[in-house]
Amino acid sequence: MKNKTALLWLFVCLTLTISVGCKRKDAQPQIILKLGHTLDIAHPVHKAMVYMAERVSEKSADRMKVEIYPSEQLGTEKECIEALQLGYLAMTKTSSAPMEGFIPQMKIFGIPYLFRNSEHCWKVLKGPMGRELLLAGQSKGIRGLCYYDAGARSFYAKKKIRSPADLKGLKVRVQNSVMSVKMIIAMDGSPTSIPFGELYTALDQGVVDAAENNPPSFYTSRHYEVCKYYSLDEHVMLPDILAISTKVWNKLSPEFRQILQEAVDESVEYQRKIWAEAEKNDLKSVQDAGVTVTYPDKEPFRKAVQSVWDEFEGTDIGESIKRIREVQ
Ligand code: GCU
Predict the structure, then answer these.
(1) What three-state secondary structure class fits 111?
(2) Phi-psi region for residue 151, left (φ > 0), alpha (ψ -120 to 50) or beta?
(3) Strand-pair category, 31-37 with 91-95
């Protein structure tokens, strides 16, 4: 009798497992959102998006899915933003730098030495201005969902950069951004815009002599294999932005919009936690790989870019600078 009951239970359990398994397999998500970006899968911002995608699946009971395509598989940042506008691509994560070409208000992030430190930056991003900027591109087909921490950008090159004088005559790779071009010119360097995915080869072959980025991007892109000097002048804090196509957003039901936004917001908290750690570890990793890290005096860099600040006086960007400086 005992054996019979045990057998019966085994049968019930097996049937249940199989049917649940089958259901899962059969259950196709109603919504699949493709997300293209440029970073490597070891990068903390990619990890945060994986976390977000997992939360979306959980919260929607697999009815909605975010599929992530890293490493420029779906195109450069500019191409991804354009695809978002047309509604061909649902989501992208880019630096705020290329966004300025589509949403002029975003130029504000390209003002060198704008934020006093990371706390100041996050206070602004989480405040009314940060929220306004996320939604500033809605009519252009781009709806910002959140900011991710991208720290501060600093120069790396095949030689030590101690002051702007060392940039004289140097070909410096910049992002697809007028503000980055202005900044490098103000520092006396020669800016060349190159997509992130092509930068390793460009540095390796001497198409450019230098570039600039935060430690996790310097490390995970392996640019440190080619550039052995990293000078932490921290000239600009350009947050990363996760955005969705307005066309796609408008088609989502209120329930799916809420699920997506909640998952995104949770991923921001997660990303900020892992970012600080990654910055520290990745700086150490490049040093272990033979990179000389230096901490130059920031004053000469600040002075050099004063002309970029002056240029915007009396404009909307000038007003935004004032608003940001007033945030305590
Ligand atoms: C950062 C940013 C990327 C961007 C890259 C670049 O790593 O997170 O979105 O592509 O800078 O310099 O192009």
Answers:
(1) coil
(2) left
(3) parallel
Work out the number of other CB atoms within 10 angstroms of the CB of residue 60.
18
To test the ligand 1 pocket, which listed residue (35, 37, 39) has its Cβ within 8 A of the most ligand atoms?
A: 39
- Under 8 Å between Cβ of 44 and 216: yes
Joined together, the tokens standing for residue 27 give: 């259950």
Instruction: Report which DSSP code applies to 224.
Output: G
Give tens-digit pLDDT for 21-59. Answer: 334 445 689 999 999 999 999 999 999 999 999 999 999
Atom of ligand 1 nearest to the CA of 148: 8
Structure-block tokens of residue 34: 């493709």
How many other CB atoms are found less than 10 A from the CB of residue 26?
Answer: 7
- Cβ 38 under 6 angstroms from ligand 1: yes
> Model-level pTM greater than 0.85?
yes
CA 125 to centroid of ligand 1, rounded, Å: 18
Q: Which atom of ligand 1 approaches the CA of 77 most closely?
A: 10
The predicted-structure confidence for 200-259, as pLDDT tens digits, reads as follows 999 999 999 999 999 999 999 999 999 999 999 999 999 999 999 999 999 999 999 999
The residue nearest atom 3 of ligand 1, judged by CA position, is 95
Whether the CB-CB separation of 66 and 33 falls below 8 Å is answered with yes
Which residues, at least 6 apart from 118, have a Cβ–Cβ distance to it below 8 Å? 149, 151, 152, 237
327 DSSP assignment: -
- 76 in contact with ligand 1, CB cutoff 6 A: no
Quote the CA–CA distance of 255 and 262 in Å, as a whole number. 11
Please give the pLDDT value at position 26: 52
